[in-house]
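Quick entry, no commentary yet.
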Amino acid sequence: MRPVRNGWMHTTTPWPTSTPFPHAWLVVGDLGPGGQQPRLKVLKGPAVLSESPLPALPAAAVTFLMEQHEPRTPALALASGPCVYVYKNLRPYFKFSLPQLPPNPLEQDLWNQAKEDRIDPLTLKEMLEGIREKAEVPLSVQSLRFLQLELSEMEAFVNQHKSKSIKRQTVITTMTTLKKNLADEDAVSCLVLGTESKELLVLDPEAFTILAKMSLPSVPVFLEVSGQFDVEFRLAAACRNGNIYMLRRDSKRPKYCIELSAQPVGLVRVHKVLVVGSNQDSLHGFTHKGKRLWTVQMPAAILTMNLLEQCSRGLQAVMAGLANGEVRIYHDKALLNVIRTPDAVTSLCFGRYGREDNTLIMTTRGGGLIIKILKRTAVFAEGAGEAGPPPAQAVKLNVPRKTRLYVDQTLREREAGTAMHRAFQADLYLLRLRAARAYVQALESSLSPVSATAREPLKLHAVVQGLGPTFKLTLHLQNTSTARPILGLLVCFLYNEVLYALPQAFFKVPLLVPGLSYPLETFVESLSDKGISDIIKVLVLREGQSAPLLSAHINMPMSEGLAAA
């Protein structure tokens, strides 16, 4: 048997068996040598039963039931390029192609001009490169191939393709199944496709028409679906921008968004928890609304993830294949088991294979195929893989004996618990009110504003001098850090231009050495002859950022007075 390379696999068992795997089929998407000759292989035991060439690299493979008629044989759907190939009884049954996307109108106009010989190939290349850099709609495959050609090959390519219409085709990036109207295991399922054009498509299982279309902000790479299409369903899509978007039946766009700190490498739904693997070697558990429940650090990089469901015991766990050759099984954040393999595992599949309900099939980075059968009497216990909590937690603390005072205080808390809680809440609300009032008063009177961010420790003090109508405004700006200078700051004034005039509304701040106070002077001219005064707001900003680092309100005096802010 030729070694199986990194691919996607699924098991199908249409008939009951009496021997371990006599009629169990294993379908594998084989990338071929160097990913140049992708093939669909069907294995029966250790032997290759059949091979079928694929026009493009396989992206996903799932089994699903298309109809309720007997015999109820599952069909195999294989996503490759822009098409979904459906097989029944291991024979080609149907081919679904994604609808074509509208081409870029500017690109279409350029090829029409080339068809009429109004522009030469060199001009066509320059204008297509300009469109590729600026246009929101990407170029077609025909234009992208033309841009890769040498100058001597351009004219022949244009003469060959200028009479052809421009076609822009997207490809499938991920695929999963969604129950149509029943939650049973043998219910009819719909196909859910994620495309390179940032869309999700739900296909009818019989007619293969598009039942629903949803848009995403980025390209989906992993999908998890729960529910039924005709009733209610919830869909989670992990995308290339590092976010996970949640969609429901009536939403055309995401309802919730989970922002990750790293790129996702796997997505598995365990009951109501979304388990996400990231390229920071960690597993995260989230609710459907984006609340993080737990985080587990892995000893090596995560290469693949899948669901382990032991129906006989009602157990659902997540499997993670690591780069160090381990396969770790977790229930929430508790480690259940560790399987060590001779090579790094690149894909996992757990389910029924032949007459065995709990079979784990793994492919390795070097081209190996490993099949493990879970014993029917096996019971997963938390901490069976390795010790979870550190040994220090098992050390008993030297807790002192209960005193009479402690017992009396406990009885008092039991009897007057409600009154004590109400008094605590009243004091807490009063403290918040006083803090809010003090904060507002500080903003209004500009009492020594201090930066709220630790990255830019700044302190500002303003002084207004003069009798008017021209005042001298001095800003004392200080860097309160211990050792780091600050550079690249701007000072901006916001004021009523009807009442006041300043020579410069903003100016740059020189390098601030830690510990020194720098005076920044400017003049303010009062334009009102009615003795009206107003507030001038001072903002300290970082170059290239709109959010201020520091702000202060200066109460300007009337034209006949002297005041200090």
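second:
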Amino acid sequence: MCCIGELFQCETPLLPVAAAVVLGGALLYVLVLRKASLAAIPFELRPPGESLPGWKGGEILDRPSILVEGRPDLIQCFDPATGRSLGQVPATTADQLNDKLRRARVAQATWAKTTFEQRRQVLRTLNEFVLKHQREICQVAARDSGKTLIDATLGEVLTTNAKLQWTIKNGESALKDDVRDPGFMMMYKKARVVYQPRGVVAALVSWNYPFHNTVGPVISALFAGNAIVVKASEHVAWSMAYWEQMVRRALNVCGHDPELVQFVTGFADVGQALTSSPHVDHITFIGSPEVGKLVMKSASANLTPVTLELGGKDCAIVFDDADMSQCIPVLMRGVIQNASQNCIGIERILVQAGAYDRFVAEMARRIKAVRLGAVLDDGAEGVDCGAMVLSGCFDRLEALVADAVAKGARCLVGGHAYAHPRHPRGQYFEPTLLVDVTPDMDITRNETFGPIMVVMRFADEQDALARVHSSPYGLGSSVFSADRLRARRVALSLRTGMANVNDFGVNYICQSLPFGGVGISGFGRFAGPEGLRALCVEKAFTEDRFPFIKTPIPPIVDYPIQDTEKGYQFTQQIVAFAYSDSWWASIKAGLRLGQLSM
């Protein structure tokens, strides 16, 4: 044998041989094993012309609103960054909804029989399209929701690709049969959980991220073998046709029925008709606690299972020893991204007393410098923060700020709706810094969904926890500290569905983790194995381990029972034999069983 230093001088050149084996194996994997994977199929889809930068084809609405006077069957679409009309979209009727549910059901019967590899091909096809057309997707999302292209990339595209990739790589392992221990009594059986498609599922999604919120549930539903009906928010109805065409084309080019995916849009009546339909097998709802309760009530008519993600009042606890050079930029994004129209946006920042003043001073400097605008029109001049989607949110936001100030808070920056000089009909709210906030103020218990940084002071761990838990929400949370043990201890003490140490919102990029909250933030989970399995019937399945061993009914307990007292003693001894902790007790029970059987 040669030493490693002599590999190249040996009669048998071991290193070149080993390299050849490795390269040969890699080549075999690429040419043979990878060949078994069904590749993505490219396709093209033209985005709507209104999404192009500088488009000015629609009229500027005097008072932008989704309502069309005298036409409850129409939705007025407009760019919230400019107030420019994007046209009108017809609301889905009850008959159209029922027809879509019927077509989805027919398509699902065939789709349920597809292999995981066939489903992966559809997701690969969709993933490649999204990667290739990032800019077009971001522009469509920006036009419909007023966000910046950076926010669209991070919140719409990156999150969608993360979900696609995780599902492609891990979906099958999450849904493969789960073998279980049958226990001592049933040792002659094989037991497993089989995850079977529910059928036709529904998703009613919010408006803050129109692409991701719409396509995310489609990814999970399809991979789990379901058809899906998506009810898009009426506030972003314009972009829905583009997202629907994208998904249906991906199905079509892969040889599958595009009727698997149906989109509907409209007002509350459409949502109520969908959630109360007996033809829906599961409902995912993303929205407010108030509407979530209505969805749950509507679904109860048919006992349809629901997953509810109902927003949050996410906190960030910043200890004295936190790395401010990392913490402050992260929290700025947690508040300013998408004008803080994020379910896991940072809505409360608790800063320990020793770091409070310098934290506030730096945030005041940064927030004053944030630039508002319409990215597709003002991109060359620079835009940090986009518009607000809801036209009726400004009185509520100003009232929350005013209540806090009246109770002792200080508003150092902003606090009001913003009249943009270039876009007077655009919907903007000033980036706001509200400090010295206390738990008795309305803004600490109500989701703002606006670019308002709320800063609270705390003394120690227990004080921080008490202030955080004064809110009924419990979605996400963050803890910033150089002391890893303390950060972990505090994070795990928070009554929230998700927690991050020295970060914000990364649970959503870690698609292996379930997403959801507690309290009035809802229940159930999407993302991760838990999210996929929620869209399946978890069927408990047993079968004989050996064909020659089957469950017998001993004559002593076979109907009609001849001696009930003796039969009762027999069943008692079965329990003792199978479940006693003591071997001696089990042996005695076994002997007694033999006696009773005679």
